[in-house]
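haha ok so turns out i had the wrong file open the whole time. this is the CORRECT one, sorry everyone. sequence first:
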Amino acid sequence: MIAAILIVIIAIAGVASYYLYTTQVPKIKDTLIMGTTDSVESCLDPAEAYDFFGFEIIQSLGSPLVEYEAGSTGSMEDIIPALATSWEPSVDGLVWTFNLRQGVMFDSSREFTAEDVKYTFDRGIGIADEDGAFVGVGIGDIIDSVTVVSDYVVRFNLKIPFAAFLSLMAFQACYIVDPTYAPMSGASWSIDDIVSYADGDARASNPMGLGPYTLKSWTRVAGKDTKMELEANPLYWNAAAGYPKSKNIVIQFYADSPGLALAMTAGDVDVAFRQLATNDIATMKTNSNLKVWEGTGAFIQYLCLQQDYAPFNDPTVRGAVAAAIDRTALVETVFQGQAQELYSMIPAGMFGHTDAFESYESPNYDLTRELLSYVGYNANNKLEFTLWYETSGHYPQSAQQALMLKEALDESGVISVTLEGRDWAAYRTARQQEIMQAYILGWYPDYIDPDDYIYPFVHSVGGSWIHHNYASAQMDQLVESARGTTNTAERQSLYEDIQDLMVDDVPIIPLYQGGAYAVSKPNVKGIYLDITQNWRHWLVYIEG
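then structure:
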């Protein structure tokens, strides 16, 4: 009798545990298909890449020392261990020591050690060119040297007590590379050291190997991505925790926003991210078969003016253009309220932000006409220039943005704008060749600190990648002082001075701050659109 009772109890317990398992551990589909209009700008080499989608893939194929946890608000408390398990700064902030995770393997079956950290930063600083993130962010102006203390301890010796250093370590440019696939022929830049797209050889097309995924395939036609496949890395250091969630990610590239929207509504893709048109997002919110994800907006767009030759070598002319920008029309008409007016390069809500450019109002045509009259422009002799914009869907609704800006500028009566569109590859080349008079660019945060919205734009070295040729000794001194102090009150005061000087010099004109949106099928889980703007492929999955 007792034996029979025990059998019944065991059977009930077995059923209960089975029920518990099946209800708590959902079935996840092996493959998730993602659609985008974006594309890799140049390459997947952290030492050279400097674009949103390139960084999106780098963070899927590699790992940093530390990272921001999903859902982050940008606080330092949100930074969590990755390849480093702990860290300690010196009292003066000039030395940072990291203890590294042991037993981590590259996908080449090499063990990761402190030597790989040193190699990554020596290489990144050594081979960096003006268009790469290492120069754009000025990593070589922050890090003096990297010292291997032991196999699993590495030390960073800084040139300045950089307040955002830990956040910088989470930046995709700082992801660790595998020396097996990341050449460094010398101590200075060489085109042969950059890992570029290798047709038909996905492994040779990237130098990482510590991430949740490996690059299974990558297809490009005429510099434009057409398809990419990510495959779970069985040697990933965090695989035991269940990452990545989806074994395979297939990325399909679409020529434009309408094509991406059609693919999403037709069910051809599971997720659509960058760039869907505002009206499509609004329509999809009413579709019960779709889910719209909304997140924090740290994305900004701004207008660059080429200052190496007339007419924009004159700050009076640049100020006249700034006064004629109608941000309200841009936000309400193009983005239907899914963005906000921006009067600083530092996003609203971030430390250091001031609405400095409000002094130009939005728009102030009287000021535009007054300023231009000083340099000989009027209704009979209009300021004429070409406004360039990209046509590939790299930024949201670029053509509509450009048209709205043209209409606002023309409305002044003393400005006449011609529009010129190019696909992203040609747009980037034109920027590098410095043939564009005025052009629209956008920015996603590299690391969560006002320095990341200032140094890469108005410092004479950091801003070289933009090719707008703004240079000011006064600005350089202010920017270097702001990034060289950890005193919060002093930093705030310096950023206020920097933004006031930007209003005087008008090296760049902030336009708007956008939100983050993605659309998926209802059973897609794990999407986080936080202030980092990082797209974490390894967390996204299809339930069912």
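The mean pLDDT is 93.
again sry for the mixup
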